[in-house]
Amino acid sequence: MIIKVSKENIIDSAKVYMESWKDSHKDICSSEFIEKHDSEYMVNYLLNKIQNGYKLYIDYFERKPVGIVGINPADEEICLLYILPEEQGKGFGSELLEFALKKCKNPYITVLDSNKKAIDFYLKRGFIPSENQPESNKEKHIFERKYVYQNKNM
Ligand SMILES: CC(C)(COP(=O)(O)OP(=O)(O)OC[C@H]1O[C@@H](n2cnc3c(N)ncnc32)[C@H](O)[C@@H]1OP(=O)(O)O)[C@@H](O)C(=O)NCCC(=O)NCCS
Known about the structure:
Blueprint: E1 2-4, H1 10-25, H2 31-36, H3 39-51, E2 55-61, E3 64-72, E4 77-83, H4 92-102, E5 108-112, H5 116-124, E6 127-129, H6 135-139, E7 144-149
Antiparallel strand pairs: 1-2, 2-3, 3-4, 5-7, 6-7
Helix pairs in contact: 1-3
Residues 20, 24, 81-83, 88-94, 111, 115, 117-118, 120-121, 124 line the site of coenzyme A (COA).
């Protein structure tokens, strides 16, 4: 069951985000940086996104929170797709992505070049590298790429 992130479920949402983010960043970030991302940090991060207009959603399966996704309505970026590590590979990511895609006309995503699993996931689901990569990424030495959605028949 996918519902909007609100005050009632912000703790669940932050927990999913924290556990999945830590797991997916443990090999690329220092342990100090990983530890900084505790539940309070993640609650504030998500609340800040909501205050900035992002629409965030959480997926519950048998009452257990399993994943989150976000959409920035200003530019239709689909972001914050995070599934609990032990719940990955069970279809929740596809479900949340499909849910978000239905709410967008010209969505895009950005992914770190090192995140091969996620890139594979998005490529298989109709995303292709954008011709317009943000120049600022090169200056900041951020190795992430923008992908746009092409396939409307997922
Ligand atoms: C990438 C991610 C969102 C996919 O969600 P998911 O629920 O595992 O995906 P599904 O079960 O719907 O689909 C599984 C597919 O994703 C791939 N996949 C990616 N990460 C996987 C993982 N950890 N375990 C199993 N499959 C994974 C599989 O290859 C599989 O591909 P296929 O079905 O096309 O053959 C999820 O693995 C995740 O939260 N990863 C960590 C956070 C992240 O990197 N988010 C994206 C940031 S841009």
